[in-house]
């Protein structure tokens, strides 16, 4: 019968009257499936279901967002038995070209699910129910050139860069924008390992992955991915190389990190490496951002803050309260002047005093006589492309406690010790001991820049930017009781 013949339609051709058609499109987003249980027909709502009947009546739903041109997108909601939904969910990923066979068409104005699905251009939505014996969504096996045209749509931006918001604006708003969604243009700074957590309510094991995102305005904001599909996708992302245009990223205030983080909403769509002119600037900026703790400490001590302007006196306990205790604020950095005693200053022991880094990209080189670990850096192939610098770990103590693991690096250490690295490595053990005792166990005015642990860093960083023997009269006048 003619009514049984299916014709191929595009998203732009779909209308209220469209029936018996096939849509060929690429998947640009997919939701996590949701499952619920019902009752077999003829059974009472209060009759007890066995495991077998629950399996037979369990149903699920999930949504695919499809695209077939630069302009046209549409949502397709799939309802069916649990097994059917699991099959579709495990079969199709973002980037697959699919055929949707004979879906139902409805106006998206009346589709309740559209409020919880990605924003699309089509005024219609598609629905599939597993009432037929054949699969209604299958992989499209077309010519290579046609598939390549569909794949190219993955990089076409859904919104323009001027419709995105800088990460710094979101972070600055703090918990005030909790629950809202924004468009972002970012570069991946780091991809952390997948982790598992046990959900208390269901006692099930759930996996998630944290990814650090950055842009030209902010050095790093954490985004958490719970969907198995997104977790698998993030494994392909390369730090400082993969860029993302994220539509409708949800903002969440994270109580553990005490800062703003991001999450994937049911409306979120992510475009990897979108074709926009701003990418070059974004990637070039990413190369300049310190990513290792030692790079951050070196950056802090290189004159970003004038030590003479650090005059807020704090005790060790007050610094600890600002980093871990009751005085934690949303800003992740502050400065302090602490009148304390150096209780660890191991210039003549086994502690690391001097480190090496690449002269080209300033990446830390950990192994002796090794070359830069970055393959794209000239220092990876050039011999003797390393420079030595002071990298000293210091503990400071006062009457309220001890601040461990403070870092004194580079020019700051040279100023304090009154010698450069070349001179220091030539000193005898006796000379190093004599140099150490100029400061050890003596009251000093220690000026620090503190960066508390955050979604980007797992530990607090205490960077000493100035250290000098304190005048007893000054200590007596300014030293705080608490």
TrEMBL record:
Recorded superkingdom: Eukaryota
Keywords from the UniProt entry: DNA-binding, Meiosis
UniProt cross-references to InterPro entries, sorted A to Z: MEIOB, NA-bd_OB-fold, OB_MEIOB_N
GO biological process: resolution of meiotic recombination intermediates
GO molecular function: single-stranded DNA 3'-5' DNA exonuclease activity; single-stranded DNA binding
Ranges of residues in domain MEIOB-like N-terminal: 9-155
Family: Belongs to the MEIOB family.
Protein name: MEIOB-like N-terminal domain-containing protein
Species of origin: Anopheles christyi
Organism placement in taxonomy: Eukaryota, Metazoa, Ecdysozoa, Arthropoda, Hexapoda
């Amino acid at each position: 019968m003619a009514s049984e013949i299916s014709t191929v339609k595009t998203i732009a051709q779909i209308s209220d009257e469209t029936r018996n058609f096939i849509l060929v499109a690429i998947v640009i987003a997919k939701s996590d499936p949701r499952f619920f249980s019902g009752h077999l027909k003829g059974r009472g709502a209060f009759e007890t279901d066995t495991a077998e009947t629950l399996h037979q009546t369990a149903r699920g739903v999930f949504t695919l967002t499809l695209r077939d041109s630069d302009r046209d997108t549409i949502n397709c909601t799939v309802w069916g038995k649990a097994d059917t939904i699991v099959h579709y969910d495990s079969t199709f990923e973002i980037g697959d070209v699919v055929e949707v066979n004979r879906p139902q068409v409805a106006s998206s104005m009346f589709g309740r699910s559209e409020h919880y699905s990605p924003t699309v251009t089509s005024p219609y939505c598609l629905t599939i129910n597993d009432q037929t014996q054949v699969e209604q969504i299958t992989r499209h096996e077309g010519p290579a050139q046609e598939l390549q045209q569909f794949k190219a749509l993955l990089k076409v931006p859904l919104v323009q860069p001027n419709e995105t918001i800088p990460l710094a604006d979101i972070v600055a708003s703090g918990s005030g924008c909790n629950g809202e969604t924004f468009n972002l243009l970012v570069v991946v700074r780091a991809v952390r390992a997948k982790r598992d957590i046990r959900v208390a309510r269901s006692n099930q094991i759930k996996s998630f992955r944290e990814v650090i995102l950055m842009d030209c305005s902010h050095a790093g904001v954490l985004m958490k991915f719970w969907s198995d599909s997104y977790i698998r996708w993030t494994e392909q992302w390369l730090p400082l190389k993969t860029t993302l245009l994220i539509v409708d990223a949800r903002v969440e205030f994270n109580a553990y990190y005490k800062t703003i983080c991001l999450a994937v909403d049911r409306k979120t769509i992510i475009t990897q490496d979108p074709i926009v002119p701003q990418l070059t600037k974004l990637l070039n900026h990413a190369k300049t951002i310190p990513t290792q703790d030692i790079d951050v400490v070196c950056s802090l001590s290189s004159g970003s803050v004038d030590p003479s302007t650090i005059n807020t006196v704090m005790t060790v306990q007050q610094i600890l309260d600002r980093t871990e205790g009751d005085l934690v604020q949303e800003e992740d950095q502050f400065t302090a002047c602490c009148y304390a005693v150096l209780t660890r200053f191991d210039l003549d022991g086994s502690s690391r005093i001097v480190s090496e880094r690449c002269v080209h990209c300033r990446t830390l080189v950990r192994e002796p006589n090794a070359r830069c670990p970055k393959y794209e850096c000239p220092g990876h192939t050039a011999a003797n492309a390393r420079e030595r610098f002071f990298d000293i770990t210091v503990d400071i103590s006062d009457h309220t406690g001890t601040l461990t693991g403070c870092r004194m690096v580079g020019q700051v250490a040279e100023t304090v010790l009154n010698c450069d690295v070349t001179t220091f490595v030539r000193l005898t053990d006796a000379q190093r001991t004599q140099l150490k005792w100029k400061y050890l166990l003596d009251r000093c005015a220690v000026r620090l820049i503190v960066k508390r642990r955050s979604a980007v860093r797992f530990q607090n960083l205490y960077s000493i930017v100035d250290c000098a023997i304190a005048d007893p009269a000054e200590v007596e006048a300014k030293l705080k009781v608490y």
